[in-house]
Each structure stands twice: as structure tokens, then as C-alpha cells.
Amino acid sequence: MKKPNILLVDDDEVYLFVTKRILSNLSSDILVTSFTDGERAIEYINLCIEEKVELPEVILLDINMPFMDGWGFLSEFKKMKPVLPNHNVNIFMVTSSNDPDDFSKAKDFEEITGYIVKPVFEDKMTQILEEIYDGNW
Amino acid sequence: MWSRIIKTSLALYIPLLIFTLVWGYLQKHSLITNIAHIQQRNIQNKSYHLEDQCEVLIDITSYWSNVVFPANFSNGEPLDSAFINEYIRIMQGYEVYDQLRFLDLHGDEILRYERTDDKTMEPKDLQRKVDRSYFQKGLSLKKGQVYISPIELNKENGVIEKPYKPVIRGVTPIFDADQIQIGLAVTNFNMNKVFDLMKARISEDNFYLVDKDRNVITTNLSNNVLPHQASMSQQDSSIKKKLQLRNLIFEKDTFFMEKGSLWVFQNVNIGFGKNTDISLQDDIVEVITENDWAIIQEIPPSYISKRLKTIRRNLILFNILTLIVISLFAFGYGRTQKEKRNFVTELKQKNKALLDSQNRLKSTNRLVKQANDRLQVRNRQLEDFNYVVAHNLKAPVTSMSIIVDMLSKAKNQETFNELLPKLETISKNISTLTQDVHTYVSILNNTKLELENVNLLLLLKEVENDFVETLVDKEAKNFETIYKLDAWHTLKCSRFYMKSILQNFLSNAIKYRRTDVNSHIIFESAWENDQKVLFIKDNGLGIDLAQHGNNLFKLYKRFHRNISGKGMGLFIVRSQLEAMYASIEVESTVNQGTTFKIKFKTHEKTKHSFSG
């Protein structure tokens, strides 16, 4: 049984701390990686491709970030798609924005599995994991 | 319109008026000529009448020059009474025949017959006539000669006879059997009857018989005969005066208009030429006379104007009709012209109105476009603000709600200790954020900017000096600020904003310079489509616009990882520029440099959009 592998991309340190805490509360077997901007996350994915390491199954992606925002990340990710080691990457937009523009923009990316508005409480996180891992986590 | 109608009417009417006046004048002239010819014929008849009388007088007088008188013809030796009685009996019937006298060579009458009434002539007392001019003239006559005296008032015994009797005398010498002159025969004709005939009018004409001195012998205007010989009444004087006509210098037969009257002048020809033919005797009768009469007939103005009335009436009628027709025509023409003009004027007005409304529409459109531009900017600013609220403000709040949730579920002190500092961080973040948002919103809300003429060069120097103090000597050596403000260097703007903007650009240029080259920033002013433009060029790190272009002017966006920054500078710069109705564009190449281009709106237009 493989451990769930989750990537957090968000510039909000408090969010990252809180989310990691929630995940660790849910299960001690979840692997969590985090970056504070899109550019760094892309660099990590590039590294994974080079090293032929499997990508995380779940990416919780913030929209509003410095250097490279969520949209920037998505367009870069789209370019890498053909060379990805595994294709079961589920990207969730996790943002405090309930701006309809953001929501409709998100719909244009078929890479996006879901759109989650912060705050992400424990139950919501459970729901996401259930959906992706079908109880196997 | 009326002046045009009148002008048209006159243009048509004046030639016709001239024509009718000429025509009228010709008509008048021909009428007057016609009247004058009639008068001339009338005068001719009167003249003949007078001539006839003279010829009869000549004949009757000359008869005695061939009669053989007794050698001692006197009272004592009279003529054969049967012969003279028979002669008088015949002559009694001839009313004009007034007197028959025989004078001896001393001027004493030998025999005197005088008319007493219409039918009778009787012998009368003898008189002495030695001092009378006809006697003197008679003495100088030769046999066969007859002297015709002027027409004079008859005198008896040296006194003018009353009532006045105008007479004309024929005088001829008489001889005895030995052809010795023994005296004179004098025949008097009473001219009253002759004059009555001559005075008869054919119209309203005034008749004057004048002698060579232009003395009136008789006229139908006065009952006086030969007034100059008896006594001149006032009327007679005025008549004489009236006859002093300018046109009568040469006494030739003529007619003319003077003093409003038509005057016809004709000399009376006593006709001595005919005399010989008419003479009953074989011997030629030679007539001696000083008479030189003329007849003047005057057609008074009243009669002429009466005769001219028809012509004048026709003339006036024709002119009135013409004038009416022309006026109607001109009125119609004027109306058409006016309508045409009105139509053109209306068309012009409509055109003008159309043009005006077009211009208004254009200016309205321009205003609408400006307002639209402003609205778009405003809209984008609102979106930006919305974005900040949706992302930057909500984020800490959501994090806080989770922490609070966790805290409420926390079972041990360790969790508290772990979580509380996080709340502190959030609170600090929120505080920073609210400050930044406040800065931003205050720019957005500041609609009453204090605009003043700012000298850009001075302002830049001021900003530069502030920075130089913060730069380390080494840095200052490698960084140069260049000004190219030839195009323009003063700008109507908010001094405070402009300073903040220039500070940001200078600060960024220093912060994001390439350390391996000599860095510079150029401030360059220029004109573009009558708009002031300011270029800010640096040779710094540059920004990848393909990646970051959309976010360049957004809040908390940063593009250079290793350089500290809040991500607020350009966001504030654009907000401040937009508050001054300026816009900003950017061009950049990584590792070469960045050029910002600021377009300032002209002040008038800025004002416009304020009011609009």
C-alpha cells in the first residue's frame, strides 16, 4: 500500500502549517511536500521528471502567489504533461477567493480536479482524500 | 423682399414710362400743330376779309381820280347834283362806307357826306383838315396814286368822336378837265363791322389785330378799339404787355407755345400784287400806305389742356395698367425668388443645425469615450481591489478561522503554545494589509488632487539627493541618473504623487540593477500626439513580460526572488498615475533593461473628464 503523496503550493505560511497539521492528524502516513510559490513547485516537478520519481497524486494549489501564481504554474504544468512519469495527478485549486472570474477560469483547465474555497477544515480535507484515494489511505 | 419687387418693377416700368412720355409728347405736339393749322386757316380768312375791305376802299377811292371835276370846284361850283346824289344813293346801302369828302388844296372841305344811320348818308357842315396827317400825305400823291391811312379813331373838328369809331381812309388827288389838281377825295370806311367779323371765335381763341408797333388795334378780349389812341385801361395795358412775346423777334408767320398758350402769328398782306388785276381801270392804281398789320390768335392754356385731356387720360390709364401688370408680375417673381431664397436659407440652416448636432455628437462622443476610458480604469481598479479583498484579505481570515477552530478543539497546552504565535503572525499580516489597502483606497478616493505646475528636473534632483544619501559610495559610483528633459520639463500634476512615483522608479532601478555593468536610469521627456510623454529607461535586470506581464502592476506581486520587496511599488505607481489621468506602459527584456512610458493627459482634457 503506497502512502498518499500530497503537494501544497501556497505563499501563506500559516495555511501551510495548519494544513500540514490537519493532514498529520488525519493520518500519520501521508507524505506532504510544500512550496511557497509556483516557480519553486515547477522546479520540484522538473526534478521529479528528471529523477523519474512519481509525482504527488494531489496538488493543492493556491492562486495568488509571488514570482509565479497558480495560473502560471498551471500553464507550465500543462507544457510538461506529456513527459510526466505518472498521469494520476489531481490538482485542486485551493484559494480564499470566491471570485467567479477565478472559478470560471479554473474551469478552462481540464487539469483541475476541483475548486476549493478556504478555509479547508478537517472534514473537507477528509472528503478530498476520500474522493481521490477511495478510502485507501 | 419688397425692395427687390420694387427694383424689378422699376426696371421694367421705367423704359415703358419713357416710351409713353415720348409718345405723349409727340401726341401733344401733333395736336398743337393741328390746332395751330386750324388757327392759321382761320387767320387767313380773317386776313382776306381785311384785305378785301382795303381793296374795296382802294377801288372806291381811286374812282375819283378819273372823274373830271369843275376847274373851280368849290361850294360855289358844286358837282352835278344828279351825279353825286345817284352816287350817294348807291353807296348808302354799303354799310361800311362812312364818309365821302372832297378837300381843296388848302385843307378845307368842299363837300362832305356823312353816314347818319344804317341806310342814310347826308351832307354835313364843312371842316378844316389842313393839320391832319392824311391831308398832308394826300398832297404828295400823284395822279392815280391812292393813300391808305392807318386805322384810326375818327376825329370831328379835331376831337375824337364818341362812341369811338375806328376808321380807315382812302385818299386820292382829284383833277379838272385840264388835268390840274384841284384837291383830294377822302373816303372813310367804318371798321367796326369788319372787326366784329374778325373777332368771331372758332374755339376759345383770343384774337388780336396789331399794327407794326405791336399796338392792339382790336381784340376780342376788350371792347376798346385802338386804346393807345384814346385811353389805355388797365386791361388794355395788360393785353399789350401780354403780347410782348419772346418768340416773336422776327415777325414771320409762325406758331409757338409761350406762357402756357399757343400763339399763332400771321402778317396781313394787303395784297398790292393783286391790286392790279382787280383794278377796274386800265390805269394802274398805285397804293401808298404805311400799314403793316398782323393777326395774333392765342389759344389759352385751358383750351389746350382740355384738348390734351384725352391724351393725358390715355397716358395715365396706360401707365396705371402697365404699373399694375408689372407690379403683379414683379410681386409674383419676388415671391418665387423669396421662396427660393427661403428654401436655400432653410436648407443652409438645416445643414448648419445638422453640422452643429454632428459636432455636438462628436464632442459628446469624445466625452463619452473619455468617461468610458475612466470607467474602464475605474472598473479595473475595482477588480484589483476586489482581488485584494478576495485573496489577500480573505486568506488570513480563513487561516485564522481554522486556527480558532483548532484552538477550540485543543486538548493540551502544547497545541496552544504552537498555535498562538500563528495568530500573532496573522494579526501582523492583517495589520500590514489594512495599511497597504488604506494607502491604495486613499489614492482611489482622492478626487480633489492639488494640481500645480511642477518642475520635473528640480523634483528629480530632490528625489535623487534623497537616494544618494542611502547609497554606499561604491554603489553610487556605478549608478548614474541621466536627464533628457529638452522636450518639456514642467508638468501640471500632483507634486506629492509625482514625487512618490519618481522615488519608486529610482528605487526600483537601483534595486533591480545588474551588478556586473555600470547602471543608469534615463528620464526623457517627449511629445506624442500633443501629449506629454515621459520615458523611464534603465539597463537593469528586466522582467519576463510573457510570464509576468499581467501581474506587473498588481499588489504583492514580486518577480525577483533574491531581492527584497513587498510587491507594492508599481501597484501604487499606477494607481497614482491613474488618479492624475495618466497611463503607463512597459517594455522589458530580461538582462537588458526596462522602459516605462508614461502618457500624461493634457490639463484641459483632464478638467473635462472631471466635470463630465
UniProtKB/TrEMBL annotation, chain A:
Pfam families the UniProt entry points to: Response_reg
Family annotation (InterPro entries): CheY-like_superfamily, Sig_transdc_resp-reg_receiver, TCS_response_regulator
Modified residues (4-aspartylphosphate): 62
Superkingdom, natural source: Bacteria
Start and end residues of each Response regulatory domain: 5-133
N-terminal signal peptide: none
Keyword Phosphoprotein recorded: yes
Keyword hit for Phosphoprotein: yes
Keywords carried by this UniProt record: Phosphoprotein
Name of the protein in question: Response regulator
Naturally occurring in which organism (per UniProt): Flagellimonas marina
